Amino acid sequence: MATVATTPSPQKHDRPPQPPPRGRGPRARSGAPWWFVLPALAFFAFTVLVPSVQGGWFAFTDWDGISPVKHFVGLDQFRKLLDDTAARDAVVTTLLAAVAITIVQNTIGLLLALGVNSRIKSRNVLRVFFFAPAVITPVVTAYLWKYLYAPDGALNSLLGAVGLDGWKQDWLGDPDLALWSVVAVVIWQFSGYSMVIFLAGLQSIPGEIYEAAAIDGAGPVRRFWYVVRPMLAPAITINLMLSVIGGLKLFDQVWVMTQGGPGGATDTLSTVIYKQAFQFNQYAYSTAIAVILTVFVIVISSVQYRYLSRQERNSA
Amino acid sequence: MNRYTWRTAGLEAVMIAVALVFAFPVYVLVSMALRAEGDDSSPIALPNSPTFANFGDAWQRAGLGPAIGNSLMVTAGSVVLIVALAAMAAYPLARSTRRWSKSVFAVFMLGLLLPFQLALIPLYQTMRDLGILGNPLALIVFYTGLQLPFSVFMYTGFLRSLDPGYEEAARMDGAGPVRAFFSVVFPLMRPITGTVVILNVIFVWNDFLTPLLYLSGSGRQTIPVALFGFIGQYVSQWPMVFAGLIIGVIPVLIAYFAMQKRIIQGFAGGLKG
User: What pTM value is reported for the model?
Assistant: First the structure.
């Protein structure tokens, strides 16, 4: 959920102009006590920084989670990963899910945002409504959809009722279909989240610019492409980052609906990490997979961030 | 441009139709939960004789009362700590231009990228050694640390656009830096505090994996874990299970409807940063 533009440029729009610094610099003037960061830093170090470093280290040991002894085994755990078809499949599954979620969720989110940013009377109600699924506990939505997807469940009943019997499927039982069924639930739940961020971007566009383009004879499509899209760049960056990172970490929905099945078809890196650690007691191997996940998240989101901020600058 | 035209009406109809498609799962959820025992009509039909009996059954059998208590405690404890610590940390981070300030901010932002799966197992071990595993306190500590980067980011962005003139005036009136923060700066940050509170309430209330691990076997569960166990136990009794699911999400939905305005405005503020 987090990750709004990960490395914002702090100096760009900082504060209103100030008199030149006197004495020993800004701290002396603003008087913000530096030790105010310490409590936050302590909690953050205890729960995130230190255990992440430990996790990185465990990945190079043979630790089983129980014995206090750990031996350094170099890259053995990672070599094991190369021979483990299930883990390799999970890498592919995770990437496919992240790409599909990112593209579809943001497309729907943008269309919804354009819709509720118009003059329709129901716009305020619809804004609240479309975001609501994002508020509901993923365990609940996942279980609800598990029921909808059941062979005799609501979705197949609905298809039967409108005469589309041929479209009935075993949505979660078919290995070729199960991943996309899970992805659809994530999209249903979080399109409203993307919508809200796009909406915040749309509302920052001054109406006059838009109207001036209309008076100059630009149709709705050209107005969108040349006026709205460039000004929406920050919202696009944040949305794409959020959905890629969220997609790479996918766990709850998979765990409730399929536990990675059928036959591992929906196993993601997160479900494999969980299974290796807490079902097979392969703690060191599990942290090695977590390291792979971390590398994916950091590399993909940095590349994405650099590309998108170049786009932002070009269109500014 | 400013009139309600036929095209606007057409768009309105399309948007409402889309909303109905989005609402379909929720319709099934509610209509199933109201179903009496032995009502075997199609899952998409309305219940024959609606009843609220499932809600009482679910409440008792799923142990939802204690779970809601635990969830409320964990959510309230975490969110209070997150707001206090993030707001304080953001103050020097937004105001100081020294190098240490930028480095500390960068370290916090690194936290937005690190997947918590990496820290999950070592932290599990640490908490086991400290003997707080199974205690809701472990969750409060975990969520506070985990959610600080995002909250520090939101607060810092907001503070940078807030005129330092207010706190300087307070300083000139003789307030110390700590007092200037708590009686002037913190109250001025109320809009972003609202956003930080609602987004963290949603996250903490709904989180599943962490309490599944850190509270497992302790008999103390949060709502998502209690619902997960309940589902497993009464797998074929859909109406009662669905009633339980509805009870479990009502508190977070109330919080959302009460504070939904802050979400869009909060993101709008964040986009400027």
Answer: 0.85
Taking only the tens place, the pLDDT of each residue in A53-75 is: 988 888 888 877 677 777 788 78
Residue B25 C-alpha, separation from nearest chain A C-alpha, in angstroms: 7
Nearest residue, CB atoms, B85 vs list A29, A40, A50: A40
In a 3-state reduction of DSSP, which class is residue A21?
Answer: coil
Query: What is the per-residue pLDDT across A67-104, written as a single tens digit (0 to 9) for each?
Result: 777 778 878 888 888 888 888 899 999 999 999 999 99
| Residue A105 and residue A191 in contact, taking contact as beta carbons nearer than 8 Å | yes
Mutation pick from A36, A124, A198, A204 vs chain B, by most beta carbons of B within 10 Å, is: A36
Query: With the C-alpha atoms ordered B84, B88, B89, B95, is the resulting torsion angle positive or negative?
Result: positive
Token pair for residue A118? 């118009």
| Percent of chain A surpassing pLDDT 90 | 30
**Residues of B whose CB is below 8 A from A50:** 122, 126
Q: Are B238 and B249 in contact (CB under 8 A)?
A: no
The DSSP bridge partners found for residue A72 are: A61
- Higher-confidence residue: A204 or A129? A129
Among B16, B102, B114, beta carbon nearest to A48: B114
Q: Which residues pair with A61 in a beta bridge?
A: A72
DSSP per-residue string spanning chain B: --S--HHHHHHHHHHHHHHHHHHHHHHHHHHHHTPPTT--S-TTSPPSS--SHHHHHHHHHTTHHHHHHHHHHHHHHHHHHHHHHHHHHHHHHHH--SHHHHHHHHHHHHHHHS-HHHHHHHHHHHHHHHT-TTSHHHHHHHHHHHHHHHHHHHHHHHHHTS-THHHHHHHHTT--HHHHIIIIIHHHTHHHHHHHHHHHHHHHHH--HHHHHHTTTSS---HHHHHHHHHHHTTT-HHHHHHHHHHHHHHHHHHHHHHHHHHHHHHHHHHH-
Interchain CB contact of B158 with A (< 8 Å) = no
With an 8 Å Cβ cutoff, are A161 and B142 in contact? no
Burial class (CB in 10 A: 0-12, 13-18, 19+), A77: buried
ipTM more than 0.90? no
